[in-house]
Amino acid sequence: MNPPPQKTSPLSRRQFFRAGARVAGMTGMGLLCGILAPRASARTTVWQIDPAKCLRCGRCATECVLTQSAVKCFHTHAFCGYCQLCTGYFVPEPNGLNTAAENQLCPTAAIRRTYIEDPYYEYAIDETLCIGCAKCVEGCNRFGNGSLYLQVSQDHCLNCNECAIGRVCPGDAFRRIPIDHPYLLKTTSH
Amino acid sequence: MSELSQPTRVTRRRFLWQGIAGASVLGVMGGLAVRAVRSRQGAEDRAPNPFAYEMGHFEQTDASLIAYERVAGFRCPRPDPRRLTFDARGRLCLAAGNYVSLLDTAGATLSEIALPGPARALAAASDGTLYVGLRQQILAFDAQGQRRATWDPPPGKPWLTGLAVSETDLFAADAGNRVIHRYDRSGKPLGRIGERNADRNVAGFVLPSPFLDVELHPDGLLRVNNPGRHRVEAYTVDGHFELAWGKATAAIEGFCGCCNPINLAVLPDGRCVTCEKGLPRVKVYDLHGEFESVVAGVEAFPENAKAGAGDGMTDGVKAGLDAAVDATGRIYVLDMVTGDVHVMANKPGQALAG
Amino acid sequence: MMNQVKRRKELRGAAWLWALGWGLGRSVAEQRFPPPDFESGYQLPLTQTPAPRSLLLQYVDVGILAVALALACYLVYRRRSRTGVLALSLFSLVYFGFYREGCICAIGAPQNVALALFDSTYALPLTAAAFFLLPLAVALFAGRTFCAAVCPQGALQDLVLLRPVKVPAWLEQGLSVIPFIFLGAGLALAATGSAFVICRYDPFVPLFRLSGSFMLLLAGGLFLLLGMFVGRPYCRFLCPYGALLRLASIVSKWRVRITPDYCTRCQLCETSCPFGAIRTPVALPANPLALAPERKRLGWLVLLLPALVAAGALLGSRLTPVAAKLHPTVALAESYLDPHRAPTPPGVQTPESLALGRAEQNPTELIASALDVRRRLGTAMVWFGGWVGLVIGVKLIRLSIRSGRTDFEPDRAACFACARCYLHCPNERVRLGLMPASELPAIQPLPAPTLPQTGSHTT
Q: Is it the case that residue A126 has pLDDT exceeding 90?
């Protein structure tokens, strides 16, 4: 049996340097912690669209890292016109004011149209179908009250460090807002 | 054992040369990749929006239908203009922000009236009284610009958007209550016009947005726009529904979008001038309500067309047009987005029927 | 009537909520036109606002990270169990990878820290800080156990490793500077608030999410394909956080020791490492004078280092305008100022023309912020250029230092602590009772040092 070779210790100097470097490393990280502590926060921020800046360019549908964008159309009913001829629901020259597919503006038929009373109709967004393309938002803003608008749906958003849509947003409409109030809803007063 | 005799060390020389070679290859590849990515980005930027809301040919006006040309124009002296009308002395009254400016026909300010809030409606009586509609109140000013009366707000949820005045009566279009109030000249309520009433065959005003205008027609009837129904209606001063005309289409002969026309003006001979939003355009309809000609098409208001009606940061009504007619039949068109007033006159040699 | 009053009250409450959501800085002045009064008693629905992921779950993530790190150290150093490490890495792949969809991850965390250091308005998420600091602190003591069993990106590559081939040493050494350069670029761009390139070009996160741009999914697939033959290609040749862990584990207190007892130099372990991290024993020359030319060269290299740094910094500052163009604000400002810019066509607007429209509305603000970005990037590019020079210089110096060793042992920096090599050591097999001690191979002699070839010095 071979005896294990005796370990000479030419490395003692290296070990000393290592220990020193380690201490320096820990000190550095401690310092970093000290600097970062006041800036770190459990109240993180989330991405959101400022509806006042949104230009309805269509990129929310195409640029999100998710296959079906986390951006959805939101609807503030409190200033919706409940129009019979909703320009967010119907194509510009519809054949008739009915729910036939060829009359619908939405590429995924994500808007539900419900009769309330003459001549008013309610429009509601089906989030599972909405792809955030803003076609209806443009229609509603163009002619109507702008009660349809885009928001980042926070249960879908992955909260990427750098929002892939925000990077290419022509309106510079994406910004981080506190997680406590994660929406920038359009309101009845402003 | 060959591994042992050739330890996994790299000579510096080999590292240098191969490193330089490798780095240059990587650099060239990286450069190409960056260029590829950038050119792709550029292409994406220039690519049209696959989900664009396209109005197509409706954004262009057939030139042969345009019977008016711009003969003059000026900028509003104050920001946030909303309405304009002519008073009995031929001065242009322009409501902008918390002021009514009285201008001469070239746009020079003659005098100004300060208001407690933004004016949304104007009407000038033949005796020189100027009635100004704020959101909830009607104010009366004499010819010198002194406030003579402040009327009580109408009951309900008033949102005044239009005024018309005759020798004896004042008609106030109230979009909030979806009604035209009839007052005598002292402010005493006389009646309500246009309220939904199946017995009187009145369908009621459908107003998704605060645009309800009322004008007095030479035939003695009121002309009121009903934007949600895409038509102009005529009522007697007693509230009898007489007639309606207009149809919903983005084509030039109809009223586009969800809710148009938004504002009205009446030419001296009784033909009606209509203003639309969304596809901003001003048109003339004959005495029978048939489309006659275009005063100014979408091309004339590029900024307005871009802005959209729902964008307005005031209350959703900044993106529109208003029109007033002077005694000679010239049409003054106000673009609320840019704050420009365009003076439109008949093209020479263009004989108009009616 | 009661019904109406109630509804109006509800509406007012809702309006307050909306006003809160809308944020500060907007005066509540003018009201929007309300919908009609419905005669059928219809109630206005409230806008649905789905809540984001609960804050509490953040702490769960950090807790799982800490436990996983501790468990990894235990499995690598105490249990010396490859099976345990594999099992833990599978868990990490499922939890941090497919469940948390690769986000939060330590690889991108240095960017958050850099941004927090330079932008006082940025609220650094606690998870990002923890994911940056914890694995690094562990690496200072126990090497890259994070890479071994906690990082989902590493676990994924480890799993697909099918038939490892040895990467030539020159290529390995050459490519190993890339993570440091990538780290520098990522930190520089993040600190200036320009971009998060490390996140943007992570090839595996789209695979975890099963969605992403086609190019990135393709890159992820190619990396996995490459990873079947080259052990952990991303970890070794790209991962910027790996670069930090390398530095930390160079000075780590504990390290992976292949043999539990003594090294027979049987060389069995070296072939077991798919990452080329095991260094062969080599003796230092008995006569130090034989190394005199190498020492002289080392001296020159040390002198060259500041020159390289300076050259890099100069190059960096020269490249600032090019780099700044990658920033959307600068790109927009430049295309706005471009005298040959085509006028915006009427009709349907492209995103580009929409952006230019925005530029036209407030050009001074845009140009000012573009100049500000360029100024900040200019500083960052000088640092980045200097950093690249430093990395190359230090690499050259490292290659000129020879160190002797008597045992087969893993390179401190390169070892992922994956625990593969343990079972290949005859002494370990003896320890585990898998092999009788009598079958241990004899100790091989220490190979002689390779001396510099004097013939190649002429150039």
A: yes
